[in-house]
Amino acid sequence: MSSAPSAVVLDDAFATIGFALKLAQQALRTHMDAGLQQIGLTTPQYAVLNLLKVEPGASNAELARRSFVTPQTMQGIVVALERSGFLTRAPHPGHGRVQTTALTERGREVLAAASGIVADAEARLRAASAPLDPETMIAALSRLAQALR
Model-level pTM? Predict the structure, then answer.
């Protein structure tokens, strides 16, 4: 049995796994953007706040990698969050050019509100995945991502 992918004929490019994934991703992003906009956040800003909750002190480079954006884009996101009072930055004690980033109390409050919005989106996705178990869906999607790396 060969591990090489078999030839696929794309008679209908809209009836592909890739197109379905993009539709799902776009629907998720649109839904989250609409909800988060009501509390003054974007989806990438939410991602940064959530990452800082899990990894306080993360650098811009690490935040960019984990949020799927460029370091330049992350710089703009961090500046906007700092201006909004949601995070603070300070020089890293061991690296002169690196700054560490941390949530403020206001940042923790907006993150709590945002997490409710994101939890609603996740609940909708889990309900829509029926009759499959959500963990089965997560595993399948993770395998798809791994297949393209």
Answer: 0.84
Q: Count of alpha carbons within 13 Å of 102, Cβ hemisphere only?
A: 8
The whole-angstrom distance between residue 90's C-alpha and the CA centroid of its chain comes to 24
Assess contact for 49 and 81: CB atoms under 8 A.
yes
pLDDT digits (tens, 9 = 90+) for 91-131: 877 776 777 889 999 999 999 999 999 999 999 999 999 99
- What one-character DSSP code corresponds to residue 148? T
Three-state secondary structure readout of 18-84: HHHHHHHHHHHHHHHHHHHHCCCCCHHHHHHHHHHHHCCCCCHHHHHHHHCCCHHHHHHHHHHHHHC
Mean pLDDT of 44-72: 92
Residue 13 CB neighbour total at 10 angstroms: 8
Q: Cβ(87)–Cβ(51) under 8 Å?
A: no
